[in-house]
Fold this protein.
Amino acid sequence: MERLTDWVLRRRLLVAGIWLVTALAGALLAPATTDRLSYTFALPGQPGYETNVRIAETYRGGGSTDPLAAVVEGADAPRRAAALGRAVREAVPGTRVVTAAEPGAGALTAKDGRTSVALLYPPVTPGAEPYAAAQPRVEAVVERAGAGVELTGFLLLAEGGNGEDDRGVLIEVVLGAAGALVVLALVFGSLLAGVPLLVAAVSILATFLALLGLTTLTDVSFVVQYLVGLIGLGVAIDYSLLVVTRWREERAEGRENDAAVREAMRTAGRSVLFSGVTVAVSLAALVLVPLPFLRSIGLGGLLIPLLSVATSLTLVPALLSAWGPRLQWPRRKPADGWSRFWAAIARGVLRRRLRTVLGCAALLLALGVPVLGLSLGSPQLSGLSSDSPASRAATAAVEGGVPEGFLRPVEVLAPCGAGGQLTGELREVPGVAAAAAPRAGGWSADGDCLLQVYLERDPASGAGKAALDRIREAVDEHGGGARVGGSPAEDADFVHAVYRDVVWVVLAVVVVTFLLLAKALRSLWLPVKALVLNAVSLAAAYGVTVLIWQHGWGSELLFGQQASGAVTTWVPIAVFAFLFGLSMDYEVFILARMRESYDAHGDTGRAVVDGIARTGRLVTSAALILFLAFVALATVPAVEVKILATALALGIVIDAVIVRGLLAPALVGLFGRINWTLPGRLARLLRIGGTTGSPGRPG
C-alpha cells in the first residue's frame, strides 16, 4: 500500500487525468452500454425453457412471453370479445387469439356472462418490451371497441400498470446521490462532502465503460445497470468516506498533509482493499451459478467493488494531497473522529454483553423465522394490483369467475394427432380450470399443436405450483413427445436450476471469505464470528422481506401494492451475493480498527470502545447512504426490482444497527483475548507473523 500511495502522490495530475478521461468516455458511451444489455433469462438444458424456445421460434411468441388480455365487460361480452379478437388479428397480422368461443376455453367467460377475455399473442420483438411494435396497434383496436373494454396482461402489470414509466437508471442514481449528499454534508460540514460523491461518479462511469467491454464478450442482464448505478454509488462512497475520515483524524493529530494521506492509506486503505476483495468474492457466487442471466449479474457486479476500490485508492489520495486542506472549508476545526455517543453505546454494550447477545440473537432469529415459508416464483396477480385500469380489469375478470391463471397459461406442445386426447386428459387434472386446443389462426406448425391450459389458482401460489406438477406428470404419462412450456413451467425450472447446488456455491464463498478475513484481521475467531453474524443478518433480511412481499405486512403502506404472494426466483441468490459482501464491509471497518487498537495496548474492552467510537458514525453514515440508494432503487416500477431493493435495504439496516452496532461488539467483549488468536498452522498458510496479537497483556 505504501508503494502505491507514493506512486500516486508523485503523479497526482496523471492519476486525475486518467480518471477524468475514463469518466468522460463512460458518460459518452453509457447510452451504448444500456442499449447492449440483455433482457433474456436463458435456462439452457431446462425442459420448460427449451420448450418455450421452440414455441417462440415456431409461433413468433408465447412460451415464456405471457399474452396480452383484452377484458370485455357488459352485455353480450363473449360475442364482443370474439369480435375484438378477430379485429386484432386483422390489425396485427400473425397475432394468435384465444377466446371463449374456442372449444374447451369457455372458462374465459365469467359465470354471469358479463365478463369475457380475449387472450392475444401478437408477434414478439426482441428487447425490454416484447410487444413494443404490436401493442400500439392492439391498443388502437381496444380503444375503437368502446366502453367496457380494457387491455391488461401480466407483463403490463409487472412493469407498474401500463408500462408508461420508461425512465432510465439516471433518475434512481440522482435520487440516491441527493440523499448521499445530505448525509455527507452532515458528516463533514465542508467541501470534503463532495469528494466521496465525485469519486462515486467517476467509479460508476468507469464501471459502465468496463460493462460495455463485457457486453462484447457475453450477454449482460439489464438488472446490472441498476446495481452498478446504486450499489456503485453506495460502495464507492463507503470506501472513499473511510479514507477521507481517517485522513481527517490524522490531520487532527498534527500530521502534515501528505503524511496524513500516507497514514490513512496504510490503515484505512488496507481495509478498503480487503473489503473490496471480499465483496468481489461474494459476487463470484453468481458467476458459479450455471445460468447466463445470473452469471452476467455476477460478472457485472464484480466490476462495482473492483473499480470502487481502484478509484478510492488512487483518486482519493491524489485529491487529498492536492486540495485536502482547502476542502475543509468552512469547517476548519480539526475532527479526531472520536464519537462520545458511540463510545457510550460501546461501554453500555460491554456492561451488558451477555444480555445484549441473547436479546439481539432472539430478535434476529424471530425476524428470520418467516424465511422458512419462503415461496419462490413470479408475483401473483394480487401482488400486481394497483389503481390502474389494467389492474382493475384483471381483478374484475377473476372476481367474475375467470380462472386466476388466465394471464399466465401453461402451454403444451404436442403432436396434433394426439392433441385432442391429451387436451381431454388435461381437463381432468386437479387444479386445471380449462384446457383448449385452439384452431383458428396459427396454432399448429410442423405437425405439432399448441395447447393452452388455464390453472384455477395463480401459477405462483402453492396450489398453482402443485397443479403444474400434476400437468407435467400427466404429459409424461401420456408420452408421444408432448412437452410442457409457458412461463409457469420456466419459473419452476429456474428455481430448480438456481438452487439445486446453491449449498456448494455458498460454501465456496464462505471458505474464501474466511481466509481473506483471517489474513486481514490476523485472527481465527473474528472471521468465524463475522460469518455467523452475516448468516443471521441475511436470514433476518429474508424473513422481513417475506413478511412484506409474500404476506403483505406493510406492502400497501410502503409501496401501494398488495402482497406479491411470492419472492421473485432470482432475488434471494442475488441478495446473498450483494448483501454478504456489503455487510462484510462494515465488519472489516469495525474489526480492523479494533485490531489496531488492541495491538496498541492489548485490552479487549478498550479495543471495543475505540473501534466503535472511531467507526460507529462512519458505519452508520455509510449504511444510511446505501439504504437511501436502495430506497431510490425501490422506485423502479418493476415489482421484482422493488423486492430486490426491499431485501437489500432491510439487510443494510439490520446489519448496521443490530448486528454491527450491538451484537458484534458484545461478542468481541464476551470472547475476550480469544478474539485475537490465530493458530500457527493457519498463520503459516496465510503467511502471517505474530499469531497471538499481544501475548501476556490483559484480554
Notes: The first strand starts at residue 68 and ends at 73. Strands lie at 68-73, 96-98, 115-121, 149-153, 410-415, 432-436, 444-445, 448-455, 483-485. The CA atoms of residues 568 and 608 lie 40 Å apart.
